Amino acid sequence: MPPALAGPVLDPDDLPDGLVVADERGVVVTFNAAAARITGLPQQDALGRAVDLVLPLEDLEGRRWWRLTDPYGGLAIRRGQPERNLLLPGGREVLVSARYVRTAPKGPVRRLVVALRGTEARRRTERGHAELIATVAHELRSPLTSVKGFTATLLAKWERFTDDQKRLMLETVDADANRVTRLIAELLDISRIDSGRLELRKQPVDMSTAVRRHIEAHLAAGEPAVRFVTRIAPDLPALWADPDKVDQVLGNLLENAVRHGEGTVTIEVSAATPTPTHPEGTTVTVSDEGPGIPEESMSRVFTRFWRGSKRGGTGLGLYIVKGIVEVHGGTITVGRSAAGGAQFRFTLPVGTPAILS
Fold first, then answer.
1. What 3-state DSSP class applies to 275?
2. Which pLDDT value is given to residue 313?
């Protein structure tokens, strides 16, 4: 027989989760660094002691876990315990699962393997979901209340209103319905970004034309032309991207600059500085002359629910913008403009057609 290939020996301290192994007597023989960090018990204080003393676990009702599970004296057909929330001394929660290793199907337990995981990551996820639900409920309540109120009033007292009054109420209903539609679209985008299912339909994109189209929309909405300055470099590289997603990024960044910034809004479009990973691409910079973003908030700008000093909106737009840019393989940064305002800069690689990607 050929000799077995020697592979690297796994060091328990390299594992990200806590690992506790007890022998057939219930004495701890392995207690890795992650277990020490999670429990707060030094490794040297755990090795050689009874596992139920090293891990004095209780369930959420205050019952001793080892007494309930009894791995060494319980049913011989048991193979382990599924993961569950348990409590360490002091009420600290930890996720625990166990595996009973037997040399024979119904033989005695020769080795008890316990895995420990902290609950911080799960709690952060649960807190994020709770915040998202609370935000959605708050954002939906106002427009839906308005829609319900106006439609109920129109249905009950249609003949009492003039045409102008009816038009005003219907325009309000229409605006609130658009607000709800935008919120639902944002939630769908977040779901796709978080699950890695945001799909791109790449086509040729003329970034200079897209920028001008967004500026024209702001001018049509009443913004003065002097508010905007564009600097578009000639001979930009061909760009393949999802035009709808690019519009979403541009729309969000320009809306933020107009609404939350001050003075002139400057939009620069240029060829990206080549890098080893992206030899060609397009860079767009949107700057304003407002108060800017505080230095201590820069790291949180692209997180969920960040709204800055001026509240308004869901605080989800920039999170979605970052997700869209990154799914294109690009990058986005935030900084301070030369005039002291906020400056957002994103770069998209040239990309490839969807049929070839």
1. coil
2. 60
